[in-house]
Amino acid sequence: MTYLLLKFAHLSAAAFFVGGVFFEVMILSRAAQSLDDAPRQQLTTALGQRARQVMHWVVLVLYSAGLALAWRYRGVLADPLASHFATLLALKIAVAVIILLHFVGVVVLLRTGRMRPQISRRIHLSVLCHMLLLLFLAKAMVLL
User: Fold this and answer.
1) CA-CA 20 to 30 A from 120: which of 32, 66, 100, 107?
2) InterPro entries annotated for this entry (predicted)?
3) Closest Cα partner for 135 from 4, 1, 21?
């Protein structure tokens, strides 16, 4: 796969992922509070099922393309303190791993039945903050 297609897949999946989390944290969670308990539960269940179907694929494309792109810079990553670019790329990868660990944590909590609305909200807010940091680092890599 060419670099351009890898970059396009990575950026598209990142946009879908960030957009989905932003929508859930900033819009949906607040709007759902105005619903009665039964409709809110139905909405949460339906959206959760659909999000899990879609987001697994989005995360797979995002991280697969990210790994392929990072592989091209393995020489730069060998000494992450050698340049601003290498340092920012290493930090970006570290933040991406933290986000992936959040995603894995959600899967574990859901499968074990320990996911609660407050835990979900905190995880989503944390992921959103880490994504914003990741976007900043990605832009800084290009500009610095």
Assistant:
1) 66
2) DUF474
3) 21
User: Is 90 exceeded by the pLDDT of residue 125?
Assistant: yes
Tokens 């995002």 -> residue: 62
To which H or E segment does residue 88 belong? helix 84-112
Would you kindly state where each structural domain of the chain is located, as residue ranges?
3-143
- Chain center to CA of 103: 8
- Percentage of the chain modeled with pLDDT above 70: 99
DSSP string, 96-131: HHHHHHHHHHHHHHHHHT---HHHHHHHHHHHHHHH
Rounded average pLDDT over 42-52: 87
- Gap between the Cα atoms of 36 and 13, Å rounded: 33
Query: Among 35-49, 56-70, 90-104, 130-144, whose mean pLDDT is lowest?
Result: 35-49
Concatenated DSSP letters of 15-65: HHHHHHHHIIIIIIHHHHTTS-HHHHHHHHHHHHHHHHHHHHHHHHHHHHH
Q: Is the pLDDT of residue 119 over 80?
A: yes
